Amino acid sequence: MNFSFPHNAHSAHKPYKPYKAHKPNRPRSPHHLLLLLSIFQFFNLSILLSSCEKAEQPYSNILVRLTLSATNLIPQLNSSLNNPGEFCTITAHNNTYVFHSPGLREDYVHELTELERKSNFVLGLSGLIVGTPIMAEQLSTQANVVCYDLACANCYEEASITRNLTLRESQRAECSRCGRRYDLNTQGIVIDGPTGRSLFRYRATFYPSGSTLTVSN
Asked: Is pLDDT of 164 > 80?
Protein backbone atom coordinates (compact mmCIF):
# COMPACT_ATOMS: atom_id res chain seq x y z
CA MET A 1 0.00 0.00 0.00
CA ASN A 2 1.36 3.35 -0.99
CA PHE A 3 0.86 6.40 1.12
CA SER A 4 1.27 9.81 -0.41
CA PHE A 5 1.53 13.07 1.53
CA PRO A 6 0.66 16.48 0.18
CA HIS A 7 3.72 18.47 -0.88
CA ASN A 8 4.59 21.23 1.55
CA ALA A 9 7.30 23.67 0.54
CA HIS A 10 8.09 24.37 4.15
CA SER A 11 8.82 20.73 4.72
CA ALA A 12 11.50 20.66 2.00
CA HIS A 13 14.99 19.85 3.19
CA LYS A 14 17.13 22.89 3.90
CA PRO A 15 20.90 22.85 4.36
CA TYR A 16 21.97 23.08 7.97
CA LYS A 17 23.39 26.39 9.09
CA PRO A 18 25.31 26.40 12.32
CA TYR A 19 24.05 28.84 14.92
CA LYS A 20 26.22 31.88 15.40
CA ALA A 21 25.90 33.50 18.75
CA HIS A 22 25.83 37.31 18.75
CA LYS A 23 29.09 38.72 19.97
CA PRO A 24 28.73 41.90 22.01
CA ASN A 25 31.01 44.86 21.16
CA ARG A 26 34.19 44.49 23.07
CA PRO A 27 35.49 47.55 24.94
CA ARG A 28 38.47 49.21 23.24
CA SER A 29 41.79 48.18 24.63
CA PRO A 30 43.92 50.69 26.58
CA HIS A 31 46.50 50.61 23.77
CA HIS A 32 43.88 51.66 21.25
CA LEU A 33 42.75 54.54 23.44
CA LEU A 34 46.34 55.67 23.94
CA LEU A 35 46.86 55.68 20.18
CA LEU A 36 43.78 57.88 19.66
CA LEU A 37 44.94 60.23 22.41
CA SER A 38 48.41 60.50 20.84
CA ILE A 39 46.93 61.36 17.44
CA PHE A 40 44.69 64.01 19.03
CA GLN A 41 47.63 65.56 20.90
CA PHE A 42 49.74 65.54 17.72
CA PHE A 43 47.15 67.55 15.79
CA ASN A 44 46.73 69.97 18.70
CA LEU A 45 50.50 70.49 18.86
CA SER A 46 50.69 71.04 15.10
CA ILE A 47 48.01 73.74 15.31
CA LEU A 48 49.77 75.38 18.27
CA LEU A 49 53.14 75.45 16.53
CA SER A 50 51.56 76.89 13.41
CA SER A 51 49.96 79.65 15.48
CA CYS A 52 53.27 80.39 17.20
CA GLU A 53 55.04 80.75 13.86
CA LYS A 54 52.47 83.28 12.74
CA ALA A 55 52.52 85.16 16.05
CA GLU A 56 54.84 88.11 16.27
CA GLN A 57 57.97 87.44 18.28
CA PRO A 58 58.89 89.98 20.99
CA TYR A 59 62.50 90.43 19.85
CA SER A 60 63.87 90.62 16.33
CA ASN A 61 66.63 88.35 15.04
CA ILE A 62 68.09 91.15 12.89
CA LEU A 63 71.74 91.49 13.84
CA VAL A 64 72.44 94.21 16.40
CA ARG A 65 75.41 94.71 18.72
CA LEU A 66 76.23 97.80 20.76
CA THR A 67 77.86 98.68 24.08
CA LEU A 68 78.01 102.28 25.27
CA SER A 69 79.78 103.42 28.42
CA ALA A 70 79.70 106.82 30.15
CA THR A 71 76.11 107.32 29.03
CA ASN A 72 75.73 110.02 31.67
CA LEU A 73 77.97 112.27 29.53
CA ILE A 74 75.60 112.14 26.55
CA PRO A 75 72.64 114.47 27.30
CA GLN A 76 70.17 112.89 24.87
CA LEU A 77 70.93 109.32 25.93
CA ASN A 78 71.21 110.08 29.64
CA SER A 79 67.80 111.73 29.66
CA SER A 80 66.19 108.87 27.69
CA LEU A 81 67.61 106.22 30.02
CA ASN A 82 66.53 107.89 33.23
CA ASN A 83 63.24 109.64 32.45
CA PRO A 84 60.05 107.73 31.54
CA GLY A 85 58.50 109.01 28.34
CA GLU A 86 61.75 110.18 26.73
CA PHE A 87 63.45 108.61 23.72
CA CYS A 88 66.41 109.36 21.45
CA THR A 89 67.87 107.93 18.25
CA ILE A 90 71.37 106.55 17.74
CA THR A 91 72.91 106.47 14.26
CA ALA A 92 76.46 106.01 12.95
CA HIS A 93 78.13 108.38 10.47
CA ASN A 94 81.82 108.50 9.48
CA ASN A 95 83.29 106.97 12.67
CA THR A 96 80.87 108.83 14.91
CA TYR A 97 77.73 108.09 16.88
CA VAL A 98 75.02 110.72 16.46
CA PHE A 99 72.42 111.07 19.22
CA HIS A 100 69.21 112.92 18.41
CA SER A 101 66.35 113.84 20.72
CA PRO A 102 63.24 115.74 19.58
CA GLY A 103 63.34 117.72 22.83
CA LEU A 104 66.81 119.17 22.19
CA ARG A 105 67.77 121.56 19.43
CA GLU A 106 71.22 120.14 18.65
CA ASP A 107 72.44 116.60 18.18
CA TYR A 108 75.29 115.13 20.15
CA VAL A 109 78.17 113.75 18.07
CA HIS A 110 80.50 111.25 19.70
CA GLU A 111 83.83 110.45 18.04
CA LEU A 112 84.45 106.73 18.17
CA THR A 113 87.47 105.59 20.12
CA GLU A 114 89.80 102.98 18.67
CA LEU A 115 88.29 100.38 20.98
CA GLU A 116 84.76 101.26 19.81
CA ARG A 117 85.79 101.06 16.15
CA LYS A 118 87.17 97.56 16.75
CA SER A 119 84.05 96.40 18.59
CA ASN A 120 82.27 95.53 15.33
CA PHE A 121 79.14 97.32 16.43
CA VAL A 122 75.96 96.87 14.40
CA LEU A 123 73.03 99.28 14.76
CA GLY A 124 70.34 97.04 13.31
CA LEU A 125 69.05 98.07 9.89
CA SER A 126 69.60 101.83 10.00
CA GLY A 127 69.94 102.94 13.61
CA LEU A 128 68.27 102.60 17.00
CA ILE A 129 65.56 104.22 19.12
CA VAL A 130 66.32 103.99 22.84
CA GLY A 131 64.24 105.22 25.76
CA THR A 132 62.05 104.47 28.75
CA PRO A 133 58.29 103.92 28.35
CA ILE A 134 55.87 105.75 30.63
CA MET A 135 54.17 102.52 31.69
CA ALA A 136 55.74 99.29 32.87
CA GLU A 137 55.24 96.28 30.64
CA GLN A 138 53.14 93.30 31.62
CA LEU A 139 54.64 91.20 34.44
CA SER A 140 57.07 94.00 35.28
CA THR A 141 56.97 96.27 38.33
CA GLN A 142 58.84 99.17 36.74
CA ALA A 143 59.45 100.71 33.34
CA ASN A 144 62.60 99.28 31.77
CA VAL A 145 64.71 100.66 28.97
CA VAL A 146 63.57 99.54 25.51
CA CYS A 147 65.24 99.61 22.11
CA TYR A 148 63.66 99.59 18.63
CA ASP A 149 65.10 99.68 15.14
CA LEU A 150 64.94 103.12 13.56
CA ALA A 151 63.75 101.60 10.26
CA CYS A 152 60.03 101.23 9.58
CA ALA A 153 59.36 97.53 10.14
CA ASN A 154 56.43 97.37 7.70
CA CYS A 155 58.23 99.12 4.82
CA TYR A 156 61.13 96.73 5.31
CA GLU A 157 58.94 93.60 5.35
CA GLU A 158 56.65 94.71 2.52
CA ALA A 159 59.16 96.32 0.15
CA SER A 160 62.65 95.67 1.60
CA ILE A 161 63.07 99.41 2.14
CA THR A 162 64.96 100.77 5.16
CA ARG A 163 63.07 104.03 5.60
CA ASN A 164 64.10 105.87 8.76
CA LEU A 165 61.35 106.94 11.15
CA THR A 166 60.92 110.48 12.48
CA LEU A 167 60.90 110.71 16.26
CA ARG A 168 58.30 112.99 17.87
CA GLU A 169 58.12 114.45 21.39
CA SER A 170 54.81 112.66 21.97
CA GLN A 171 56.60 109.29 22.27
CA ARG A 172 55.63 108.50 18.70
CA ALA A 173 57.65 107.54 15.63
CA GLU A 174 56.33 108.28 12.13
CA CYS A 175 57.12 106.88 8.69
CA SER A 176 56.97 109.37 5.83
CA ARG A 177 56.62 106.60 3.26
CA CYS A 178 53.72 104.45 4.50
CA GLY A 179 52.13 106.97 6.86
CA ARG A 180 52.16 104.70 9.90
CA ARG A 181 52.65 106.04 13.41
CA TYR A 182 54.09 103.84 16.13
CA ASP A 183 53.62 104.16 19.89
CA LEU A 184 56.97 103.80 21.66
CA ASN A 185 55.29 103.36 25.06
CA THR A 186 53.44 100.17 24.07
CA GLN A 187 55.99 97.89 22.38
CA GLY A 188 56.07 99.98 19.21
CA ILE A 189 52.61 99.03 17.95
CA VAL A 190 50.91 100.81 15.03
CA ILE A 191 48.41 103.38 16.30
CA ASP A 192 47.65 105.27 13.08
CA GLY A 193 47.74 104.58 9.35
CA PRO A 194 47.52 101.16 7.65
CA THR A 195 47.47 98.15 9.93
CA GLY A 196 50.75 96.32 10.32
CA ARG A 197 53.28 94.78 12.64
CA SER A 198 55.02 96.58 15.49
CA LEU A 199 58.57 97.92 15.35
CA PHE A 200 61.55 95.60 15.34
CA ARG A 201 62.68 95.37 18.94
CA TYR A 202 66.03 94.43 20.51
CA ARG A 203 67.11 93.49 24.01
CA ALA A 204 68.44 96.48 25.94
CA THR A 205 70.10 96.45 29.36
CA PHE A 206 71.05 99.58 31.27
CA TYR A 207 73.45 99.47 34.22
CA PRO A 208 72.94 102.76 36.12
CA SER A 209 75.86 102.19 38.49
CA GLY A 210 78.30 101.96 35.61
CA SER A 211 76.40 104.20 33.18
CA THR A 212 76.58 101.43 30.59
CA LEU A 213 74.05 100.42 27.94
CA THR A 214 74.14 97.18 25.98
CA VAL A 215 71.90 96.25 23.04
CA SER A 216 71.77 92.75 21.56
CA ASN A 217 69.46 90.10 20.07
From this structure: yes
